Amino acid sequence: MTDVRSAPYGSWASPITADLVVAGTVGLSEPMFDGDDVYWLEVRPSEGGRYVVVRRTPDGETADVTPPEFSARTRVHEYGGGPYVVDRGTVFFSNDEDQRLYRQPAGGEPEPITPEGAFRYADGVVDAERGRVVCVREDHTGSDREAVNTICSVPVDGAGEPEVLASGHDFFSTPRLSPDGSALAWLAWDHPRMPWDGTELYVAAVRSDGSLGETRRVAGGPSESVLDPAWSPDGLLHFVSDRSNWWNLYRERDGAIEPLCEMPAEFAAPQWVFRRPMYAFAGPGRLVCAFTENAEWQLAELDTESRALRRIDTPFTDISYVAAAGGRALFRGGSPTEPASIIRLDLDSGETEALRASTGQPVDAGYLSRPEPIEFPTEGERTAHALFYPPTNADFEGPPGERPPLLVKIHGGPTSAASSDLNLALQFWTSRGFAVVDVNYGGSTGYGREYRERLKSRWGVVDVDDCEYAARYLSVRGSADPDRLAIRGGSAGGYTTLCALTFRDVFKAGASYYGVSDAEALAKETHKFESRYLDGLIAPYPEGRELYRQRSPVHSIEKLDCPLILFQGLEDKVVPPNQAETVFEALKGKGIPVAYLPFEGEQHGFRRAENIKRTLEAELYFYSRVFEFEPADEIEPVDIANL
């Protein structure tokens, strides 16, 4: 044990270094059973952000499946998800470099089964009886039109051309075969809706030749978001719907829709990526599910006949990617003090086993800040939600009478939510003496459809209100220094950051990671999946062009008068680099302290370890100059114009 020393906030020495944040850290997702084997997907910053399919055998041996020259990533909807599926040891995956679908038999090498061309594939399911993979396909062959999405079938041996099974909608997802292969269910939706606005669930019989019979709509519509269709072992179609305001579980039986578990909780997450299920069947009548209440995820088992819900006691507060089979469950689970891991659960004994952790670097609990869920007043006599992390370091405390600087952290999306699992990049700040508040502003998920729709036509207003009120609330209660309030976010969070710095005066500094500065440019230039997203968040375009300009920081640079650091990937197709460059040049010309760090080879979201490290240290250096403290770390200086 060491004596606790008094030192200025921000200057504390911490074992949670930028090197530790990226060293050995991997992203984990999409676990699945294949017989007695378990598979999952890893994203490795140390390998340039490569996506790797990993297998674990019953004897505990873990090995990479996809070879080093392959990266199992799909770019359907740009955000991807669902890049692989396994059937009896054979892995089918989308390769990032050429976006072709590959077949890799157990012990063999990958072989392409789709032709070369401007096609992308995702979210597949193996139709073993007919020798094919049924999946979503995105066709980019037409340069004069937007991409065309369909559900298609791909022969597993690559001997024939893919065949379109369902078309006619702007978007498709989640094709799922019934247990006997006689029916196919899927989701579809059209512009300008996003999948959390309204989707339709369809089902059709599968004919003997593999084509589909008459299509029938089961549920959904323009104002009902249906997600995660799945078949029970006895052939009943289940799904999640927000028809009650909350994403709850339902099923269709004898032509009628039955609620399975009505409660003020969410059994799904927004469908930004393919295949992120929150429930699965562990056997007849046994449904394993995850749900969130007040920003905390829990695991439960639902008896689908009695509809009794049994909560399963686990240490995890963030749970996703639920899979199940034979009385066992798989999921990704994490907590404020334990890193996200692939967890295997025996439902009968309750025993859990961590198969793979996102980081192998343990951190003493004395340096970890635990989140406090807070509910605070905001504009319009409403309340909003956040997770507050106080500065925490076993070796240091702040000087008497001094309050810590506050980082207001904004999640991306904006239709998303803050996570409570261990985030070393966040603990990097709290262990140095910063307070952090992760805001679930109006528009975030996890609090029902009504809360989610607070942002309708109000992006750049409601989110900014809630972030401002969170900072003021924490300042008033004494948890933050009102003269050292900073705001940071990436993508949509970067937009909120820039709006808050431009249109409000509460924040003294900020950091934008690939943030939107020109909402009009985003509406005109972004990819198909999000091309009409702003219709609901701001207004239809071009009819609402003037409102776009009013809500775009780039058109009100004269109002932005506090220091800012910008980080940008130069291959970003979602938010092009010219948006950050425009803001940088404008602030530089105004004499405002500003820094701009562009990164070659990075897209929307940084994946390379060396770049993630650089951004953390550069942001700390920037705040140290702006808030005038001396960091304990040796950091490569940042070129800050006008400072």
SS-derived structural category: alpha+beta
Could you give the count of β-strands?
38
The CATH architecture term of the domain at 5-17 and 374-627 is 3-Layer(aba) Sandwich
> How would a crystallographer describe the biggest sheet?
8 strands, mixed
The CATH topology label of the domain at 5-17 and 374-627 is: Rossmann fold
| Low-confidence segments | none
Structure explained in plain terms:
With 643 residues, the protein is an alpha+beta fold. The chain has a domain at 5-17 and 374-627: Alpha/Beta hydrolase fold, catalytic domain (Rossmann fold). The protein is built from 10 helices and 38 strands. It has an 8-stranded mixed beta sheet with strand order 30-31-34-33-35-36-37-38, sandwiched between helices. The protein has a 4-stranded antiparallel beta sheet with strand order 2-3-4-5, with no helix packed on it. A 4-stranded antiparallel beta sheet has the order 6-7-8-9, with no helix packed on it. A hairpin with a 2-residue loop joins strand 22 and strand 23. Helix 4 (462-476) packs across helix 5.
How are the SSEs ordered, and which strands pair?
Layout: E1 5-6, H1 18-22, E2 27-34, E3 37-44, E4 50-56, E5 62-64, E6 84-87, E7 90-94, E8 101-104, E9 111-112, E10 119-127, E11 132-139, E12 148-155, E13 163-166, E14 171-177, E15 183-189, E16 200-206, E17 212-220, E18 226-231, E19 237-241, E20 248-253, E21 256-261, E22 279-283, E23 286-293, E24 296-303, E25 309-312, E26 318-325, E27 328-334, E28 341-346, E29 352-357, E30 372-378, E31 382-389, E32 396-397, E33 406-410, H2 424-430, E34 435-440, H3 449-452, H4 462-476, E35 485-490, H5 492-503, E36 509-513, H6 519-525, H7 533-537, H8 545-550, E37 564-569, H9 578-590, E38 594-599, H10 609-627
Parallel strand pairs: 1-32, 33-34, 33-35, 35-36, 36-37, 37-38
Antiparallel strand pairs: 2-3, 3-4, 4-5, 6-7, 7-8, 8-9, 10-11, 11-12, 12-13, 14-15, 15-16, 16-17, 18-19, 19-20, 20-21, 22-23, 23-24, 24-25, 26-27, 27-28, 28-29, 30-31, 31-34
